[in-house]
Amino acid sequence: MLTRDSSHLSYPELLRQSRSFDYSACIRGMRLAVLSDAAVPQLVPLLQVLLGQQGVRADIHLAEYDSIELEVFNDRSALYAFAPDVMVILNAINALRLKYYRCQGDRLQLREEVATKMAAVWDTIGVRSSALVVQSNFVLPYERHFGNFDHKVPDAFHPWVAALNAAIVERARGRANVLLNDVDALASYVGRKHWFDERMWTLCKAFCAFDYLPMVAQNIVDIVLASVGRVVKCVVVDLDNTLWGGVIGDDGIEGVTISPSGEGEPFARLQHYLLELKKRGIVLAVCSKNDPETALEPFRRHPEMVLREDDIAVFVANWQPKPDNLRAIKEALNIGFDSMVFVDDSPFERQLMRESLPDVIVPELPDDPSDYVRALSELNLFETTSFSDEDRRRAELYRENARRQQLRLGVSDISEYLRSLDMRITMKRFDAFHLPRIAQLIQRSNQFNLTTRRYNVAECQAMMSDGETYVPFYLKLSDKFGDNGLISVIILKREAPSLLVDTWLMSCRVLARGVEQYAMNQVVKFAKAHGYTTVVGSYIPTAKNAMVKNFYEQFGFERMDEGAQRETRWLLRVASYTPQEVWMEENHG
Amino acid sequence: MDDAALRQRLNDIFCEVFDDDSIRITDEMTAQDVEEWDSLNHINLIVAVQRSFKIKFTVGEVNNLANVGEFIDLIRGKLP
Question: Taking CA atoms, what residue in A is nearest to B57?
Fold first, then answer.
């Protein structure tokens, strides 16, 4: 994701940077294969440097020009030998149009064939590899053979491509290993007149005008980063002259501008934009230099306000420096700085934030509020690779959490508090219905995550089917305040006489409720019932998971040895385990 | 733009594209004379020249270039 503005997406500038980029600071590696029916060697350095800027060192395999099917359908191809984590497939309309023109028969049937062949490519990849497929759609052509009448002729070129894109979307929806790269959205934003460079297509089969190749690369990077859990979880907004026009402390509730039309419209539009983000699971927080009561007044009483008090998960209005308040918001939500976006009209506050907390994403805002939404939208900050019921309910989940914390403050004894929550827990083997959420949690959990192994949906599905090797569990928790949904994943591996804990992770929303104590009891019970004498766990430290450093110790595991990557390994003799006290009932049914 | 300025600007582009500050272009120079001058960088060179001089080449012009001297003539002919 871009962190400030798109001005650095310049082709010559990125090429220059790619020559001398220092990848030693990268915290993870990734293997990308790029396949295209255009010639895209220029994309390789762009992908490398853009991923490098985000701390990812990419090894890239560029398939021969126009060899998508050749590589995919041959199970001994260089593509599979490379063992990519991600396969980027770029299809150019320039390549497809000749097939369209040459088709003498039924063009609607040709369209069906193109879409079916594409799905066959994805499915073949799915059988032979666990790689994520990032598939482009087709840029709509500028050719209008019937002029405006085009749209009334189903097999005219332009509507034919539009319908083909729809057919691709339909097929991609049902396939968890495929994500779409909406190249047509980029081209239409830039304008097709500028996007297509037909001379460069003739000369070297260029995918698009070179000026826009960085946009294509950035779009791929956005998808790839989101697929490994690098997503924005929270937007922190300023109030005066950001969420409304004017200064509430000076102008009063009658003086601030927010309205369905006129000068207040851009502010209403920003609020609607934020509300849509909230509906899809991004948490909203307020950080304003104001007295709290004054700052809350418009949320409570202004008739044109779109956002209400309930929409804001954490509301901070005081006179402290904003970086301090950002830290407090981060703590309250239990998320990382790099998953927070800070939106403020003041260049001073933005600069201070960048200098104090460089991991927080601080977009440049234009002078005119009319352009706020466009500036945010252009950065594509809110990429995701899934959308579940958990997302729809997230804002609610955080509010329920706030209520739990209030109850906690009123209770002195922690066990009394936990009992008073009336918790209900479910621990079950992976099932197809929960796979998308399971994979999402695996991608996103950073803090309570013992080994940080990022399995995607296809890999989870494989573990679900391989009962000989794996015993994968998910856990769901509800209480009297509401349903927390699927909050933990534990993947056990059979290696008799030991049961190995391959993965143990949990959402930080349910910290300190006794979920892990319950789960450990169950894991040991499973081990005992199936004849395992020891349970072996490991902890692989990352920049974010220090909170579970002593996880195994608290359950009586003994330290064995150190593995690679400063990994520590821990052993429990099943016979000597002391069951933990639990505060929750098992949910049956 | 006089001839010296044009040559200087083109020389700078060569240094940038081929990542070699020691390049001194001559009229007789061809792709054989520059180590990094492969088909990929050839396109990068064309793109960089078009961008820098705000001109556009036809495919035929690009394909028929014999040496740097002809390239300079071609650029000069397109400048206002």
Answer: A199
